TrEMBL record:
SUPFAM superfamilies: WD40 repeat-like. Keywords: Repeat, WD repeat. Residues 1-112 form the WDR36/Utp21 N-terminal domain. The keyword Repeat applies. This is Uncharacterized protein.
């Protein structure tokens, strides 16, 4: 039921497809229309003065446009949505119709086709859409990490943009010729592979479909299905696909155990790789187009030479591999096995180098980090785990409320994308190690953190609900993280040469900000309009002048505080005793000086923010406190560690307390002599260490210039 622009006139839709316009004031039936299917929504157009138009939708995804003046249908848009249309509505005063349906799509239609005194078919002006059934396979596309390819159970292949949603599109399956005789959409895609190398030249995506004996090619440049459908020579069902790094060749693995290679440009058969006795489960290609890696239900991984199809190596596995993933730069192959174990092999040697156990259910997908150091895995036990390959440790684990089906790591190392069994969207997780310093340690299953995947916007709102258990668990995680942050990772002594300088793990911009903090504060200070000075209360005596000032009572002119040589006015009580304040930094400096070990002090400083470090250094009281700081800096320079941090602390201290240092250089007492000695030691150490570093840099630059003839 919908109110029309006319007073007392309603539009009423019925289950039999009838649409009635009724004057409820006079209880009179005005117009009757009939459409196919049950009526789900009605809307009236309000921007026309000489015509009246109405839109109605049904359960089959059709939208009908009616001319109420001429009492006839204008157009019937078949399959405007895939499935039930939930709502259609005209925007008030504009020739725009918005429709939404269960296909997770919202469309804006524009009525700008006017001829013969009547409006014709509208055209799509804008639309936003996504999967309306869960994505089954997702992969980042390209080296910039800005695009994601996703194949879902809704029989679509989509490209999602990480940076701008308006660039996300569905790759068209529009068919022509003989292909148009089959169903509108292809069956579900179970595997696909893509390379951007030849994107602008020919098709650069290959996909295989559920239960089908052919593979399809797609063009990312055209955002549509490609020219070729490759059918294996034995007409066996295609189970796996791959594409060469050069983009010239596609590979398909079949149910019979063969792997066939064809040309992506022409779609013509080239070679067959034989050796497996059972179904192919995975295909990977190396970065030099030299070898092909295949896995099969016969519990083997085989390595073929691409040039002559010869079998180079066969790796036996104790469990069936459901798929394999290759890290091209390092030559490591990961086999996802049915016994819930992840096995990592060296492709060149054919040896098992790592084996990760811990998942409690079938593993659904794995992904390498771009540098090959981490391996991220997802499982039907709803956990996502991160494994450190060099150490073989589990370094991160969290549990989600929806089973993760597929995942992939961004080529730029900043994001992890996941898809889930009962979610139609993709979840993008940021990599904290990319944006801040993170301490890694070996963890176990008891450290599992539960993370709620964002729910649908149509679901119930929890803004007014406070989950006490959730707050407690989050508090525990924060406390645990604070304990982890307290741990410092130290390299074994045998791995460090004592003559080498080491830097801190802090980002470079931290020290740049510390050295320019005054300039940054000055630049960020808001510019306020000048205010006229407020007039003093009438009962306070003021002196005459351009700028009136308060007069000091005469009876206070002679009041002084008795002391040694310095005299302080009673008016300056606000600054009295400031030099005696002992901060935590000063306490740690004194403690380190007693045992001649300042590790605790430097650990404390590394945990402070830039503003806190600046405040701590400025709060040093006098020569004695400065002497403690310079001794700590000299000790750290002798240790040849945290070289960048000590240089930053030193520069800030000299800039802030330059007056104290200059006075000490002209005095002859115990504190001044100690300060001179500490500064002389720091100067000698800096000249020695930087001299060695400078000579190495000059030597390296000289060699580079010589060999490059620049």
């Amino acid at each position: 039921m919908e109110q029309s622009p006319a007073l007392d006139v309603l539009g009423i839709g019925f289950l039999d497809g009838q649409v009635l316009l009724v004057n409820i004031l006079e209880d009179q039936k005005l117009i009757s229309f009939h459409q196919e299917g049950k009526v789900t929504s009605i809307s009236f157009r309000t921007d026309l003065d000489n015509q009246a138009m109405m839109a109605s939708a049904n359960l089959d995804g059709d939208i009908s446009i009616w001319n109420l003046e001429k009492k006839r249908i204008v157009c019937n848009m078949k399959n405007a949505h895939d499935g039930v249309i939930g709502k259609v509505t005209f925007i008030h005063g504009q020739p725009l119709l918005i429709s939404s349906g269960e296909d997770n799509k919202i469309v804006e239609w524009l009525f700008d086709n006017y001829s013969g005194g009547d409006y014709g078919w509208p055209r799509v002006l804008k639309q936003r859409s996504g999967h309306y059934s869960s994505p089954q396979k997702i992969r980042f596309y390209g080296k910039d990490g800005k695009k994601i390819l996703s194949a879902g159970r809704d029989q679509t292949l989509r490209m999602f943009s990480v940076i701008r949603d308006s660039q996300s599109v569905e790759l068209s399956q529009r068919l022509s010729g003989k292909k148009a005789k089959r169903e509108t959409r292809l069956p579900n895609i179970i595997q696909f592979a893509a390379e951007e190398t030849r994107e602008k030249d020919w098709d650069n995506i290959i996909a295989c479909h559920s239960g089908q004996a052919f593979s399809t090619t797609w063009s990312m440049s055209h955002k549509a299905i490609g020219k070729h459908e490759y059918t294996p020579k034995d007409f066996s069902i295609v189970k796996a696909t791959a594409i060469s790094v050069c983009g010239n060749f596609g590979f398909v693995g079949t149910l019979s155990g063969n792997v066939e290679m064809f040309n992506m440009q022409s779609g013509q058969f080239r070679k067959t790789f034989k050796g497996h006795t059972k179904t192919i489960t995975g295909i990977q290609t190396d970065e030099s187009n030299k070898y092909i890696y295949t896995s099969s239900l016969d519990k083997t991984i085989k390595i073929f030479k691409q040039q002559d199809q010869s079998l180079v190596k066969s790796i036996d596995i104790s469990s069936i591999p459901s798929s394999i993933v290759l890290h091209r730069s390092s030559g490591l192959i990961v086999a996802i096995c049915d016994d819930m174990v992840i096995r990592v092999y060296d492709a060149e040697a054919g040896k098992l180098v790592r084996q990760f156990e811990g998942h409690k259910n079938q593993i659904t997908d794995v992904a390498f980090s771009p540098d090959g150091r981490w391996l991220v895995s997802a499982s039907l036990d709803s956990t996502i785990r991160t494994w450190d390959l060099p150490t073989g440790y589990l370094i991160d684990i969290f549990k989600v409320d929806s089973i993760p089906i597929s995942l992939d790591f961004s080529p730029t190392f900043d994001f992890l994308v996941t898809s889930h069994s009962d979610k139609v969207g993709l979840c993008l997780w940021s990599n904290k190690a990319m944006f801040e310093h993170v301490e890694f340690r070996k963890i176990s299953d008891v450290d599992i953190a539960t993370v709620n995947v964002p729910a649908s916007e149509f679901g119930p709102s929890d803004e007014d609900h406070v989950d006490i258990d959730g707050v407690d668990s989050q508090t525990d995680l924060v406390d645990e993280q604070e304990q982890i942050n307290g741990l410092r990772f130290m390299l074994p002594e045998q791995m460090m040469e004592k003559s080498l300088l080491t830097l801190s793990n802090e980002p470079k911009n931290k020290w740049q900000t510390l050295l320019n903090l005054d300039l940054i504060k000055k630049r960020n200070k808001p510019v306020l309009p000048k205010k006229e000075p407020e007039s003093a209360p009438f009962f306070l005596p003021t002196s005459q002048g351009v700028e009136p000032k308060f007069e000091k009572p005469k009876n206070l002119d002679s009041e002084k505080i008795d002391g040694d040589d310095d005299e302080m006015d009673v008016d300056s009580k606000v600054t009295f005793g400031f030099g005696q304040i002992e901060t935590e930094m000063t306490q740690l400096l004194k403690k380190g000086g007693e045992i001649n070990n300042y590790l605790e002090f430097f650990d404390y400083m590394s945990r402070q923010s830039v503003s806190s470090i600046d405040y701590e250094i400025r709060s040093l009281g006098g020569e004695s406190d400065l002497l403690l700081l310079f001794k700590a800096i000299g000790w750290q320079l002798e240790e040849k560690k945290l070289f960048d941090a000590t240089q930053a602390y030193l520069r800030v201290a000299i800039n802030v307390h330059s007056d104290i240092i200059v006075d000490a250089l002209t005095q002859e007492d115990q504190d001044a002599d100690g300060l001179k000695s500490a500064l002389k030691k720091i100067l000698d150490l800096c000249e020695t260490e930087w001299g060695q570093m400078d000579s190495l840099i000059r030597y390296t630059t000289c060699l580079v210039d010589h060999f490059t003839m620049l």
